[in-house]
Amino acid sequence: MKIEATKEEFKSLLDLVYAGNVLINGMRSKEERIQVYSEVEQKIFAMAKDFELQSVIEYDEEFKEYMPTSDYEEEGVDEYIDAYDTQVFWEELVMRLARRDGLNYVGDVDPDMTKAQLKEMQMNLEEKYEEEIQEHGLARLKIVKLTEENA
């Protein structure tokens, strides 16, 4: 593989490759990883020395692979990943709570509700949950043990 780039452009490519592989393989065990992405990441990481970026990527003899250095991980790309994870967490939480509550309402109160009405209800619930979370975070979210009365 041959890549023509400035040092800064190649550093940006490293960031993208690293973040992409974290997204695709970060939650998988070594046996479950999608190898083609790990292999491409290793090829790109191996080229770091050609762009004088040894302070960013180094070869680890113990693991027999190229890895980001601790300096690299502290540079900021992990901040982008963390910000993404945080945003996805809140969006998913709001969406899933609204969906749960909307479906519970349909099951408990109005089984004849149309899909359009359910969608509108969910959007209103999402707005309600977004406001709650913006104002109070998780402080007022509680696990409630279901009984026959509130099931």
- Tell me the structural class: mainly alpha
**Radius of gyration from the CA trace?**
23 Å
Order of helices and strands: HHEEHHH
| Percent of residues in helices | 55-70%
Number of domains: 2
- Total helical elements: 5
Distance between the termini: 60 Å
Q: Using the alpha-carbon principal axes, give the shape.
A: elongated
Average predicted local confidence, pLDDT:
91
Q: Biggest sheet, strands in spatial order?
A: 1-2
Number of strands: 2
User: Which band does the percent of strand residues land in?
Assistant: 5-15%
Task: Summarize the biggest pleated sheet.
Answer: 2 strands, antiparallel
What ranges have pLDDT less than 50 throughout 5 or more consecutive residues?
A: none
List keywords for this structure.
single chain; 151 residues; mainly alpha; 2 domains; two-stranded antiparallel ribbon; 5 helices; 2 strands
Summarize the structure.
With 151 residues, the protein is mainly alpha-helical.
Verbal overview:
The chain has 151 residues and is mainly α. It folds into two domains: 7-74, no CATH class; 78-136. 60% of the residues lie in helices and 5% in strands. It has helices at residues 7-25, 35-46, 70-74, 77-108, 115-136; strands at residues 57-60, 65-68. It has a two-stranded antiparallel ribbon. α1 (7-25) runs antiparallel to α2 (35-46), α1 packs parallel to α4 and α4 packs across α5 (115-136). It is elongated, with a radius of gyration of 23 Å.
